[in-house]
Amino acid sequence: MIIVSTDGSCLRNPGGAIGWAWVEHDGESASGGGASGTNQIAELWALLEAIRSHPGEQPLLIESDSQYAIKCASEWLAGWRRKGWKTATGSPVKNVELVQAIDAAISGRSGPVRFRWVRGHVGNEFNEIADTLAGVAARAVRDGTLAPTSPRTSAAQTSAPRNAAPSRPAAAAAADDVMTLF
């Protein structure tokens, strides 16, 4: 199983530069960003890039501290698709282009994709790394040192292998702060 943590960052919500990142628990990481958006867009974009970057048959487990992003990609997605991308109240789904791209990425992947919520900012090693990378990307876009992209055209902007192995004590300590959705 591939385990990836994701996070998004928005420097001024809404309307500030945004960053996204994913961190594989035993390998690579990637991040990028856009000129303007919301934190919810950045969180969804991070999920999308993680799925796109991990094709294949091997099961993919994505950890995120965003219940909104997880529910968009799991609980709510099928109902929205069935209702023509409308919510239960008949309103258009917010961030529908990203949600549809996530739907297509999941459907196009031969292996299963699962999501697990983790509490943010409590020392979860990989969530903290993703948070840092997303913030660095958002600031780099703001400062003009990273070209902004969009979710429709994005390729991972940075990729760096990680040499550190997961901290098992930290992972065990964080076990009480997770919720897995299947």
TrEMBL record:
Pfam families: RNase_H (PF00075)
Signal peptide limits: none
Known EC number: 3.1.26.4
Principal EC category: hydrolase
Biological-process GO terms, alphabetical: DNA replication, removal of RNA primer
Bias (Polar residues) ranges: 147-158
Cofactor(s) the protein needs: Mg(2+)
Regions of compositional bias (Low complexity) in chain numbering: 159-170
Keywords: Endonuclease, Hydrolase, Magnesium, Metal-binding, Nuclease
Annotated region (Disordered), positions in chain: 146-170
Catalysed reaction, written as an equation: Endonucleolytic cleavage to 5'-phosphomonoester
GO molecular function: metal ion binding; nucleic acid binding; RNA-DNA hybrid ribonuclease activity
CDD domains xref list: RNase_HI_prokaryote_like
Stretches assigned to the RNase H type-1 domain: 1-139
Subunit comment: Monomer.
Protein family membership: Belongs to the RNase H family.
Record-given protein name: ribonuclease H
